[in-house]
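Hi R.,

As promised on Friday, here is the backbone we talked about, encoded as structure tokens. Could you run it through your design pipeline when you get a chance and send me back a sequence?
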């Protein structure tokens, strides 16, 4: 099951699990649409392709909440 990380690893933008606009690689590195575009849809961590992350809504989000662990590291 996807961890549904809550933020962009590059800029820190919030990426709620129930809203479209997040991009992930096969290791679940997570980026906002603007950063994914700036990265030419390639993960800077592993070189993998960045694809649209599916959303998780309603009862599924309530039963399987997104992680709260943020990956953005300033500086």
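Update: got your reply. Pasting your designed sequence below so it's all in one thread:
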């Amino acid at each position: 099951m996807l961890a549904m990380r809550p933020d962009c690893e590059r800029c820190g933008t919030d990426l709620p699990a129930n809203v479209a606009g997040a991009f992930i690689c096969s290791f679940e590195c997570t980026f906002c649409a603007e950063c994914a575009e700036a990265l030419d849809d390639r993960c800077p961590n592993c070189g993998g392709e960045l694809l649209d992350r599916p959303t998780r809504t309603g009862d599924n989000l309530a039963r399987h909440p997104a992680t709260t662990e943020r990956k953005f590291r300033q500086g």
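One thing I noticed while checking it: The chain is about 15% helix and 10% strand.

Thanks again,
M.
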